[in-house]
Amino acid sequence: MTEKTSGKKLKEELSKKFNNAWEALKDGELEQVFEFSESYKDFMDKGKTERECVDEIIKQAKENDFISLDEVMDKGSVNAGDKIYAENKGKAVALFIIGSENIEKGMRIVGSHLDAPRLDLKAMPLYEDGGLALLKTHYYGGIKKYQWVATPLALHGVMTKKNGEKISIVIGEDEKDPVLYISDLLPHLAKDQMAKKMGEGITGEGLNVLIGNIPYKDDEIDEKVKLNILNLLNEKYGIHEEDFTVAEIEIVPAGKSRDVGLDRSMIAAHGHDDRVCSFAAHKAVLEIEKPKTTVVGLFVDKEEVGSMGNTGMESMFFENVVAELLNLQGITSYLGLRRAMSNTKVLSGDVTAGFDPNFPDVLDKRNASFIGKGVTLTKYTGSRGKAGCNDANAEFLGEVRQIFNKNDVSWQVGELGKVDQGGGGTIAYILANKGAEVVDCGTPMLSMHAPIELVSKVDLYMTYKAYKAFYQG
Length: 473
Description:
By secondary structure, the chain is an alpha/beta fold. It has helices spanning 7-14, 21-24, 29-46, 50-63, 69-75, 191-194, 198-201, 224-237, 272-286, 317-328, 334-342, 394-406, 428-432, 457-472; strands at 67-68, 83-88, 92-97, 107-113, 118-129, 132-140, 153-160, 166-171, 209-212, 247-253, 258-260, 266-269, 294-300, 345-348, 352-353, 375-378, 382-383, 411-413, 423-424, 437-442, 444-445, 453-456. It folds into two domains: 16-116 and 270-472, 3-Layer(aba) Sandwich (Aminopeptidase), CATH 3.40.630; 119-253, Aminopeptidase i, Domain 2 (Roll), CATH 2.30.250.10. The protein is built from 14 helices and 22 strands. Strand 1, helix 5 (69-75) and strand 2 (83-88) form a beta-alpha-beta unit.
């Protein structure tokens, strides 16, 4: 007769509990978490837009011996260990480290996006009303409009002047800069506004940015405040009102990333979704040397509005680059590209909702991510009956689990809310449609899509650690 196993021992053997990642850190890792977070904050402060993020990623890639795809194509060959970057119209970029195996055998990709919810200027934004100069905006991505009022804002973007010169503009980030602002209604007069639903209290057409109040000194003209603003812009940048029609100008929260908590355990910043995963993947791929399988850091645009357009994941950009590299390896057939994609394994690096004690009812607590428990694996996203999702295969999930456990990665599982509560999606399904094995894997966060979002430093670090381990196989 065998001795009966104690319930406590049996529970330890059979049950699964996702532990606190802070408590799971090895000797010396706590310092690494905080050092890594400082470099992330610096990246976030330099990259308030997708264009600025691409510039910083390429800058750091060049410092780590990456060369452009154009240089490789001019050379006419590609070799194992080559480090290559391919830029897509200044808004997306892919970093490749060529493996010893042919690309046709597949790649290991961490794919993320660089765009974030924001306000974009309309084509003819500048107008005057009530003695004030304002800018008309059109919001980008899923936002709560009321969160964007009564807070300091900055202007970032590019404009093309009449002579064809492209200029970059940033106003509101330097401590000496003025900031911009969207006014809200005082509570004394907000009876009707307060009676509306939250989503209707501030309208999209009401997100107009205050930019000036001083009139131009000339009694013979109308709209003197608007003219004064145009004159200031012309004096500093040499631009005219028509230049707005061919510009890409974004309005984002002003100010730098900040530590949160007396223990400095968290980071508040604009655009954690999805630059936290992008930064982790970027840093991880820079540390890979001479892999067996080609590794790729893929950073795309337009995810927040459906991944469409020639800089989004639905574009042919990535497949075109892979086809060029295959051609340099002597594989010119369409079949070779299809084999490469179907043999590929992907972590779709995107954030997920962490459990928020202030809003506990929207998540299934047994299947929710928690802040401070590490990177999150999300088997499926979508909405209602998993509509529009990639649902990762069990075999691939098992492989990823083994990699994480072998490399002491603190990880957890999570869904994006209760069934029928809402939902969302990532770029996962797009690469999966090409035949690749894909699972969503990213950082849990609070206040997703708010102007300022929140992540834990240990979750950021574990995301980086997870991506690096995945690249190494």
